[in-house]
Specification:
The protein has 21 helices and 14 strands. It has about 550 residues and is of the alpha+beta class. A seven-stranded antiparallel beta sheet has the order 3-4-5-6-9-10-11. A hairpin with a 2-residue loop joins strand 10 and strand 11. Helix 2 crosses helix 20 and helix 4 runs antiparallel to helix 7. The longest helix is centred in the N-terminal third of the chain and has 32 residues. It is elongated, with a radius of gyration of 26 Å.
């Protein structure tokens, strides 16, 4: 085949075949140069797409949020931005961590290296009080000294070590014991810790990629060891030394320490530009699963509905929707703003999701919790309905998952209907995704209940408070629910939420990054893949 013929083939983008004596490294370099030019073109196209998305005022614009600090914590913290659903991702290993471990909050993540080998990623969780102790401190590593002192009074501080490289049981135990040993004089306790790790890892053969070692450091000084959720035992007197392994000046993961500083320090005095971005976001009508980082030091504003007040008729009247949105929803927002403004810095650094997921706040500050949860729930509920083309049956991934977990869509509908009708008092009927069980679940929660507090991800919800339906249906809940499923439910939005919950929402996240966080990462993502394909194709042509 001639060079001219090859250049005319539509599926080949190269103008000439490289000489036969070109080395692999040279071939990849040539491919990289070409993909940089392609990436520049891609970035320009992505910019235009981003501008279109970010400037759209349509209620049906792509559901991409404007600030999304859940995946973008800290000021300009690009290194820890996550394409998936976790709170933080280790940029070195692409392993992400949930933002809560029970009632504990994630502080930071980082990689532990052994030479060039990325052995594991570590994430640290503790209570909010220790985090508050450094919230107003400057973003430098000296602030970690204050944090280490605060952690001594914390009931529990947990470290999750998520393996990225296969390590034998004995080597894994030796590595951790060798890090703890110089930080304590109790050699017997170190030996006990080493044995616990060895026993826990040995039970599964080795610490393979995906294995999770959990170390719970308690205020009584003990360190509880678990492997893949299975408790192994406790070693006494090592709580403080174990924390120092990751937090002191000689900590084994500089990236982890940097992450903690970036995400926990300087929160109370974030830049005005960050605050402005958050304010814009809090007034948007985007998916509340991703507005959950909205910072309260900028007052919440009543979000606009994604449709007109008369768009849900005849199922929900304009009168009902106006009262629901402008009276009830607005009151919850007003109450939250008032409580936070009077609560000082301890409340102002909290995100919406942190409040909704906090069992501690639910018990200690019930009024704030209930009103914040109602703000979250209402924004989510309004997005669960469509002003046009709603109702019917779901399709795609959501339909398949429903059939898998409930047998059929009719079974799901009957279960949600029964749960809603038989529930006592006011509340919310949720379709949610349990990440641990990897399945959809239905639950009706009273009051301001939200499944996030149990670590379960909302997919769809029906508001069963009387102000949502009473003007139109009085006590006929069944007719209201039938209308919701027949004419209103927004299955596209529910599927969008399910994809994020299952970690399959790459495309929406890419659009999000294009329109709000700049273009280098997006260009790099496409460029890397294109460079690999180009190099392979050029080598194939040589052969």
């Amino acid at each position: 085949m001639t060079l001219h013929a090859i250049s005319q083939r539509p599926n080949i983008i190269y103008r000439r075949i490289p000489p036969a004596n070109v080395k692999l490294s040279d071939t990849i370099t040539m491919a990289a140069k070409r993909t940089r030019r392609a990436a520049a073109s891609l970035s320009m196209a992505a910019l235009l797409i981003g501008l279109c998305f970010s400037s759209s005022s349509s209620p049906h614009a792509p559901m991409v949020d404007a600030a999304d600090p859940k995946r973008f914590l800290g000021t300009n913290n690009h290194k820890f931005w996550s394409l998936r659903g976790g709170a933080l991702v280790d940029a070195a290993t692409k392993i992400d961590f949930d933002d809560n471990l029970g009632s504990l909050t994630l502080y930071g993540v980082g990689v532990r290296k052994k030479g060039p080998i990325k052995v594991y990623s570590v994430g640290m969780y503790s209570d909010e009080s220790a985090k508050s102790s450094i919230a107003s401190l400057p973003k430098n590593k000296s602030s970690l000294t204050t944090l280490r002192k605060s952690l001594k009074s914390s009931k529990t501080t947990s470290f999750l070590l998520k393996m990225n490289f296969k390590v034998g049981a004995e080597k894994m135990a030796d590595a951790i014991a060798e890090s703890v040993d110089p930080r304590t004089s109790d050699k017997g306790a170190v030996d006990s810790l080493k044995k616990l790790i060895m026993d826990g890892v040995f039970a599964k053969g080795a610490a393979t990629p995906g294995t999770i070692l959990q170390f719970d450091c308690s205020s009584d000084g003990s360190v509880k060891v678990s492997v893949d959720g299975k408790a192994v035992g406790s070693a006494s007197g090592l709580s403080e030394p174990f924390c120092d392994v990751f937090l002191d000046d000689n900590g084994v993961s500089p990236a982890f320490r940097e992450s903690v500083v970036e995400n926990c320090c300087g929160v109370a005095s974030s830049s005005s530009s960050s605050a402005t971005s958050t304010a814009t976001h809090s007034s948007s009508s985007h998916n509340p699963i991703h507005i959950i980082g909205s910072l309260f030091y900028h007052k919440l504003k009543l979000p606009k509905l994604p449709y007109k007040y008369n768009a849900l008729q005849p199922i929900i009247s304009e009168k009902t929707l106006r009262a629901h949105h402008l009276k009830h929803n607005a009151k919850y927002i007003e109450t939250v703003n008032q409580i936070v403004s009077e609560g000082g810095a301890s409340l102002k650094h909290l995100s919406m999701e942190q409040i909704v997921k906090s069992k501690t706040l639910k018990e200690s500050n019930t009024v704030l919790y209930n009103n914040a949860a109602q703000c979250w729930n209402h924004l989510f509920f309004f997005r669960c309905m469509s002003g046009s083309g709603g109702g019917g049956e779901p399709r795609g991934l959501l339909a398949k998952t429903i059939r898998r977990d409930f047998g059929s869509f009719d079974n799901l509908r009957k279960e949600m209907e029964s749960s809603s009708i038989t529930a006592f008092g006011s509340g919310w009927t949720w379709l949610a995704y349990d990440k641990k069980e990897k399945k959809l679940v239905v639950s009706t929660m009273t009051g301001a209940g939200n499944p996030l507090i149990e670590g379960i991800i909302p997919i769809l919800v029906i508001d069963m408070w009387e102000h949502a339906y009473y003007l139109d249906y009085q006590d006929n809940r069944k007719e209201y629910i039938n209308g919701f499923f027949d004419r209103l439910v927004n299955w596209k939005y529910a599927q969008h939420n399910l994809k994020h919950a299952m970690g399959k929402g790459i495309v929406p996240e890419t659009v999000h990054h294009v329109s709000h966080h700049g273009l280098p990462l997006v260009a790099a993502l496409f460029s890397a893949n294109l460079a690999k394909k180009t190099a392979v194709h050029m080598l194939f042509q040589q052969s």
